[in-house]
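Here comes a specimen:
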Amino acid sequence: MYFVIILLVVVAVLFASDIIRPDLIALCALCILIFSGILSTEEALSAFGNTTVVMVATLFIIGKGLSTTGITQAIGNNISLKIKTGQQNLLISVIMGTVGTIGAFMSSTGIVALFVPVVKRIATVNYFNIKALLMPLAYAGLISGMMTLISTAPNLIVSEELSNQGYTPFNMLDFTPIGISMLIAAILYFRFKDFFTKRKDPEVINLGSERMKSLLKKYNIEGEIFRLLITKESPYANRTVSDTNLRKHYNINILGIEAGEGFANSMTTVGKDTILRVGQILYVNGIDKDIEHVCRDKNLQLLEYKGVHSSMLKQQIGLAELVIPFNSGFIDETIENVGMNRFGQFNILGSKRLKSYSLDNLKNHQIKTGESLLILGSRDDIAKLNNNSDDYIVFNIPFEQSSDINHRKATTAITITLAMIIMLVINIVPPVLCILAAALLMVGTRCLSMEQAYQSINWSTVILIAAMLPFASALDKTGGINLIVDNVMQIFGKGSPYMLLTGLFVVTVLTGSFLSNTATAVIFAPIGIKIAEASSISPYPVAMTIAIAASSAFLTPIASPVNMLVVSPGSYKFRDFVFTGLPMFIIALLISLVLIPTLFPF
């Protein structure tokens, strides 16, 4: 019993430390349960065929179908066209309402990932404070998980646990009144709480149109922009960019090349295999002494850099920021490997996690979740990055380069999703069958390909759920659940049922602030039902409280991948989530104490 509890504590600490991937931690812990003899191999691996695991995996496919057909992008563009300067509060309401609604039927992480660049573009055009917009976006994503049975994994886990204990599981819309109330309260909270300055100087908040020099400085890349002519005497003539080793020997970045005479259509980006020619003009970034050094050593001529050159550079060469989501294939890869294998046409210039810039610490730097990378390339190539990749989220995409909606496929995807929702509400066939059929129809009607379907599944989350579910059996088998139930009953069970709900809500939220909400739901769902039985009250208000609390990850940036997505683009600190999330936590608790016992009497 104590061995399993200690193992759970170790798993929670490792999850919070972010040193090792959470799915790997869960799998290792599962192996320990098998080798220790607490669970048989069959018991430990049975969760991989659990209906909850299957539903979570297939819901990713449905969400991908909605995004691939351009539905979510079209909604974002529509919002962009209607919001005007000075309507920041209106934008907060619209964004939160939209994300909360769409997120009820697809991954909250996915919907927030789609809307981060949309919100940032709107802020750019209208000079809104990006910090006042991205936090509400993240919280709307979290609250969307409270909307329906299928909107987040914890809801499915809690419902499945009710079924396992012999109770009727939750229906599709049992969560909806609570989720809607929570969303309305959150919108009012963010509209009227002036926790950040509403408006700052456009140069500070308008990240999308930051001057190139300022954006380089943001990534700790010092220096100015210069123009260097390749002369006949220069050893760089007829050599490739990689041969010059400008970054290694002189700490200079090549931003672009102006070829021949004049400017017309002559500005291009460079790759490592680009051959430099006599008469070309390099646009570079560096500090004065390094520029003087390279000009002297390599017979380069320093030319004047004026406004016309700056304008041409901005028109044809672009910088973009990539934020790395939690399920990215880039995580733990070095920047050098990513640059060679995936971004050959781009130059990765810097990372926000690096305190100082140099070539060596950049190329060997390992990419982590929530990290922001600065890349350079042609504006056309950067625009093509707007492809809903699971590996990164792109900022600074021009409005005219946004993806077009495929009306036929979009109509098909919406029809399939609505049919699935109706079948789940009617509840005449098992939910897993409804969701699986909808996922198959998404592929069968070519809303997305089979390859896209497989790629859309966040296997890390699926493995995490399947590996953590047996912990409930291990706790139950060794008497750990009874021990926890007895201790909780001693602290909270002597008062009213409302005190019990309060205690469970607080403990679940605090645990979920450092442990994944999925793992938190896996642990607390069976405990809550046992506590309800020991208290002689209905298990439904207790189970619903645990589900809502698991999604109330407002207090820390590491509480949910949704929060991590906005940390870098919003330049948030840990304390921003604490100060902003604490009132939201209290609001969520109060709404839960009022609505849950009303909808599900004790």
Summary: Confidence is low (pLDDT under 50) at residues 195-210, 398-403. The chain is about 60% helix and 10% strand. The chain has three domains: 2-39+70-199+458-599, 209-315, 320-401.
